[in-house]
Amino acid sequence: MTHAAAATHRTSMGLDSRKMAFWAFIGSECLLFGSLISTYLVYKGRSVVGPYPHEILNIPFTSVSTFDLLMSSLMMVLALAAVQRGDMKWGKIWLFSTALLGLVFLGGQVIEFTEFVHKGLTIGTNLFGCTFFVLTGTHGAHVTVGVLWLLTLWVRALQGKLGPANAMTVEITGLYWHFVDVVWIVIFTVVYLIQ
Amino acid sequence: MLGISSLAAGFNFIVTILNLRAPGMKMMRVPTFSWMTLVTNFLIITAFPVITVGLLFLMFDRFFGTHFYVREAGATPILWQHLFWLFGHPEVYILILPAMGIVSEVLPTFARKPLFGYTVVVYSGILIGFMGWGVWSHHMFSVGLGPIADSVFSATSMLIAVPTGVKIFNWIATLWGGDIRGTTALHFAVGFVAMFIIGGLSGVTHASPPADLQQTDSYYVVAHIHYVFFGGTIFGLFAGIYYWWPKMTGRLLDETLGKMHFWLQFVGMNLAFFPMHFIGLLGMPRRVYTYSPDLGVSDLNLVSTIGAFLIALSILIFVVNLWRSRTRGRPAPNDPWGGATLEWSIPSPPPPYNFSVIPTVENRLPRWRTERHGPMKDPPAVPPAPIHMPGGSWWPMVAALGLPLAALALLTHTLWVAFVGAAVLLFGIYRWAFEPFEV
Q1: Which of A3-17, A61-75, A130-144, B287-301 has the lowest mean pLDDT?
Q2: Which secondary structure element, helix H or strand E, spans residue B44, and what is its range?
């Protein structure tokens, strides 16, 4: 990746090359989650044994997780704003908060998955189990990648290697984080709210 | 997993073509090969995630006891067919569009005429890219999806033949009245057009569900796919290799051997694949290696086999030609063919920095003289100012090492090795992504 070159050269579309590549990546990810969500919808109500979604999904609990993830997007916006104006003290705080809220979301997912397994829903129980765990698990894996990414940036900031010159890196991290958040809004609506 | 490397390359090509063009290189001045590469890479980054999901489900069914494709659990294997062909049909265009781009470069050079209807060729390519997403169920007519789905996909499949046909007429019109030089590259490009017409015609017959029900899973389909992929893609690729080999290596290929290669391959492929139309319609199913002598297809199959050996012989001649060019090939000048595009203005093989001075592009055929402009000046042989080259990176290699490890372990069902491979892959990608902080 020619980051340095791309940052200094004038580009044909006037857009940073890394940012353009990342938008293309997000387009590609839409097809990935689109396929997973479509499969969930196609197989909805076709499980031949329980537990069924309405017996097991805990909407109040997941609403809290959803709120937590939405708030992490706010932290991400604040982190980018701080880095862009060169305020690395708050930049570090907001970056860490974003990662922390991401970790809280993942913790919630672990609790939810464990509870489901105790109630008899595993990945191999029925079609609901297959489609639910693979869909939310893939999303959880994306959140995990995001948390590792944010923590890496936070460590680099602590080392003094992240400054306003790297604002584009933080902006792209933000694009990823907001995208993962938006996907969750769709999953929350499709899987939890519309049963 | 293979999707990862294709996606990474896809993003790279898209951004390079869209965002790192030379000054004056407007989108409507970009060479057709680059244009088709752009469309192809958009198809790659959108189609590969779909097969990734299909394969993910398959892997989970095999290793972790899920039931994505298990009938008894209420699921349906048709989901696999949909996911596969949702990827599979765009993939067909991923394979053919670059070859169409190559032919659109080779024909004008050796006819010494601009590509006929450049704009239409480009827009047809884009249209094929979009429509390629709306035809996948024509691979599934025999599943019984119902009259509505069959009608819609039949209509879209016939419709996609239109931009393809437009391109074919453009290529023929490019040759028409041209000052034609019969190089090997031109032979392959013209062979492409001829073979692709036959493959395209048999393809349109599949678009009709009643006809397709007779042809599905028979050798007729095998004949079709070989006319479009062997007669099409492979001929296109050979045209590209004979055209750009001197640019890549600095050595010319032998034209006599090249033409022997072409004619043997041309005759061989028609002997091998044309009889398959009849073999299929006479009732021989594909993917079955044996058949009853009562079927009456023994002689036709013998002809096919002879054709296959001729193809093998032609490829052998090709390999000898490549090998010979290393030592005995004539050294290639900057521009052995009199090409119109920028790559011919620099040395063969190109220096690591490609252009000593980034050229300013003023028209679509910068190196030719037309009524409106003269040929552009070649960039100087020695760069007037030092050129900054980006450093290399080892981390993509590390990531690439993890892939085969994980894949082989999954084949032998040793899960822990697969996880080690995946960990190496992820670590490689992680270090690669954050490398700018190291330098």
Answers
A1: A3-17
A2: helix B32-63
Domain membership of residue B376 (yes or no) is no
Q: What pTM value is reported for the model?
A: 0.92
Structural Rg of chain B based on CA atoms: 24
CB contact A19 to B (< 8 Å): no
B66 CB neighbours in chain A (<8 A) are 123-124, 129-130, 134
Q: What CA–CA distance (Å, rounded) separates B235 from A77?
A: 52
Cis peptide before B333 (omega within 30 of 0): no
Mean pLDDT of A100-124: 95
Residue identified by tokens 């990414």 is: A149
B188 and B159 co-located in one domain? no
Q: Which of these ranges, A15-19, A90-94, A109-113, B227-231, has the smallest mean pLDDT?
A: A15-19
Examine the domain organization and report whether B262 and B324 are in the same domain: yes
B52 and A32 within 8 Å at the Cβ level: the answer is: yes
Measured between beta carbons, the chain A residues lying within 8 angstroms of B86 are 35
Q: Are residues B267 and B139 in the same domain?
A: no
Question: How far is CA B80 from each of CA B55, B72, B287, rounded to the nearest angstrom?
Answer: 9, 15, 20
Residue A51: asked if its preceding bond is cis (omega within 30°), the reply is yes
Residues A128, A113 contacting (CB under 8 angstroms): no
* Residue B41, helix vs strand vs coil: helix
pLDDT at B280: 93
B128: its two tokens: 């094929």
pLDDT at res. B439? 45
Question: Which stretches of chain B drop beneath a pLDDT of 50?
Answer: 439
Interatomic CA distance for residues A95 and A84, integer angstroms: 13
Residue range A90-104, pLDDT digits in tens: 999 999 999 999 999
* Residue B421 in tokens: 């491979």
The residue segments making up the domain with residue A185 are 17-193
B148 plus B288 within the same structural domain: no
A9 in B contact zone (CB under 8 Å): yes
From the list B49, B64, B74, the residue facing A28 with the nearest CB is B49
| Mean pLDDT score, A108-128 | 94
Average confidence (pLDDT) over A120-144? 95
Backbone angles phi, psi at B218, to 5 degrees: -110, 175
Contact yes or no for A29 and B50 at CB 8 A: no
For chain A, say whether B391 makes contact (Cβ under 8 Å). no
Task: Give domain status of residue A3, yes or no.
Answer: no
pLDDT of residue B400: 86
Q: pLDDT value at position B2? A: 63
Q: Is A46 on the interface with B (CB under 8 A)?
A: yes
Set of chain A residues whose Cβ sits within 8 Å of the Cβ of B389: none
| Residue A7: per-residue pLDDT | 44
Last residue of a domain, one of B180, B210, B236: B180
CATH number at residue A146: 1.20.120.80
CA distances from A24 to A65, A107, A139, B226 (A): 28, 30, 19, 33
B196, part of any domain: yes
The set of residues, in sequence order, having a beta carbon less than 8 Å from that of A129 and lying 6+ positions away, is A47, A121, A122, A123, B66
How far is the C-alpha of A130 from the C-alpha of A80, rounded, in Å? 37
